[in-house]
Amino acid sequence: MSIPNDLWTRLYVPALAMALILVSVLSGTATAQSVVKVTGTQGNWQLTLNGQPYYIKGLDYGPDLKTTQGTTNAYVADLVATGANTTRTWGTGSTTSNLLTAVDNYNAHVVMGFWLNQNVNYCTASNLNTTLNQIVNWVNSYKNDPGVLVWDIGNEVILQAQNYFSGTTLQNDRVCYAQFVNQISQAIHAADPNHPTTSTDAWTGAWPYYASYSPDLDMLAVNSYGGICSVQSAWAAGPNNNGVSYAKPYIVTEFGPSGEWEVPNVTECQLSLLICKRPLRIPMLGRALLAPTATGLLACRWAPPHSSMATRTISGAPGSTTNIRLP
After folding, report:
1. 155 within some domain
2. pTM for the complete prediction?
3. What CATH number is attached to the domain comprising 55?
């Protein structure tokens, strides 16, 4: 799902859920580099932080990082007050240091995203080495910060490629993208062996590409809303849909009730109610949703007290566009 930046500056978006076994202490200040590992085997996966099991209770981070440290500190204070111990970004850059400084004050952690453009043909692009080197530079800048938890490469690129390509070009682009993700993961691991890598997409149909062409990733990842309850069964069915499950655990990096793109032919009023009621339709700290081979807690979409009304243009019924006011 692609959402305008101005909305993310006002909302904490649907939460992270780790399909792993995790626990954390929310008090105290983190001071030493974190060492994070994916351990275990099929049916017994675990994420560890400095040798201890870590259970993510997460909310994705939406506010603009181009602000004062005090403002970022206030947002993070609100975030951890909900019981969250982890947040996630879609991109990493110079202002990410504000967020890391803030989470370090609360012994919280960040899934560090790297944005990769969704409209690029990854078979023919000429600047991929530049992109890879920029990512490695940011890894080297932040890898020793105790707030770093996971490196997350790209967001929904395999799904969104269908908006730009078709036929053989689309198929080849998805393969080339997954291969590029693998290159990035290898480079990140070479620069930082102390944090795992993953890559987020918006459907489990992307996972076979990662299984085949991104073997260096430590985990799979998915954003899922209306289809959240089918994620575990898709994982169990495996890349060949034959009941031989994927060989790596997964994380749910966004979730929530059915999105407006999943609810066709609704009126503007109905769509407004659907979106505005979202915070009331999922539990704050969640419940166990996934199977024992991949268990985790889910948290909710959260609009912080610092937020204000935002206008977002979204698709309503086919052929129409509506402006929805979001709290």
Report:
1. yes
2. 0.77
3. 3.20.20.80
